[in-house]
Every structure is written in C-alpha cells, then in structure tokens.
Amino acid sequence: MSERVNVLKTYKLYINGAFPRSESGRYFIINDKSGKQLANMCRASRKDFRNAVVAARKAFDGWMSRSAYNRGQILYRIAEMMEGRKNQFVDELVSQGHSKNKAQKEVEASIDRFIYYAGWSDKYQQVFGTVNPVASPHFNFSMPEPTGVVVASAPDDQPLISLSTLIAVTIVGGNTCIVLASELKPLTAITLAEVLNSSDVPAGVVNILTGYREELISHFSSHMDVNSIWYTNGDKKNRKLIQENASKNVKRVHFTTFDDWTKEAAENPYLIQDFQEIKTTWHPVGI
Known about the structure:
alpha/beta, three-stranded mixed sheet, globular
C-alpha cells in the first residue's frame, strides 16, 4: 500500500460569526521549522477587511447594550472552552517553533487572561467613572463608554497570548473588533476563532483575519468607519503611516509593545480605559 497523505487543514477567516474563504481566493502556506508544510492560510484582502468592519459596526449597538455582567460571563465562557482544547493550542504552537514548556505557559496565560478581564467587566466603570464637584445645584457624573469599532494587529513572537489580550481588552468594554493575527504563526488564531464561535460571542463582535501586515495596515488605518487602532509592532514606518491615515477621521491610535505578553504589564485595567470615551452627564439636584 502507498503511504497515506495527510489532509492539511485550510484555516479560513472569521467574519461575522462565519468562516469564509478570502474573496480574493488567495492563500499562503505555513511551514514548520523543518520546512514541512503545516497548513494553508487564507490571505485576507481589503474587501475581506471591509466586510469585517461592516459586521463589527452592525454588532456594536447590541454588544454595547449588553450588561457588564453578561459580557463577563461570555469572556469566562471563552476561557472554559479554551481549557477544553488546551492540548490543541499547545500542539499548534509547538508545530510553529515553540518549545513544549513555552507553549504550555502561553496557552495557560491566554486562558487566564480572559478570566482576568471577565472579572473586570463590571468593575472598571467604578474605577474610571467619577462624581465631579460642581458649583451649581447639580449632580455631575463622568462615565466610560466604548469607543466603537477597534482594529488591532497581533505581534509574531507570542501569537496566542497577544491575540487573546487584544480581544479581551476591547470587547470587555463593549467595543467590537477586527484583529489581524500573527503573520508568521497564525494557526492558533483561527483555532481561537472556533472557540469564540461556540462561546456565546455574538456574530460580528470579534472578527479575525489572517494575511500580510504590510498589505493590510494602510487599509486598517484609513478606513473611515473605524474608531480606534491598536498597533503592537515596533516598526517606525508603519507607525508613521498609521498616524497619518488616522488623522483623516481622528481615530484613536494606541501603540503598545511588551517584551513578554504573559507578564503583569500586559494585564491591567488601564488597557480597557484606552478604548473608552468619557461621557459627562448633568442632573439637577432634587429632581
């Protein structure tokens, strides 16, 4: 008998709660460290990104209107589902060059990251909201509200924990997001999308693209219906391009780099604040 040929998985995009192939029909190949082919990845296009923005905008009002407690429940459910597929995440990271120990550490940190932000879902409002002293007979309250549609790009070194952080931070505050997965190690991104798809996350709240950063970053930063962009790579060329494009519709721009995404520096409630607007309300005393 001839030797059996393994069936390689085609990792698709995740847009609006579904797994479409790229509208362009393009793919790129992911190899292991020995050069052996691991999988086919969809190469997202500008049209794929625009579709993701439409889905995120459509989902925004409903997700923002969810109670903070319910959003926390859903983030916790994501962690539960990831725990059940821990071995798959570890195997995918190992196949892309991680050591077994490093992969286990990253997967466990990613699960814990969703639990951490699930706990903040109904608490950050008290930390960042205030009752302001005023000279007139009024109550004056400042409260955080979500920015809107957030676009983010994950780095290559720690592809799962960085992606988990980007998603958890943005959606726990009521935003919707489109995230570009690691270009070099994207396998766990679509496995995470499969987890999200079965974790009570409404369609369109999280959209995950795979593809080339250099091709998509200009579209990310120039789209007029994106409210904020979170860029986690240190290259100066793209940072300058993002700032220039973002100025056209006054997008909020956040540049963040961490040496180690598993450490406490990448796990704090002030990251949530970066994607919140502060709304101030006046109310007369006695009414």
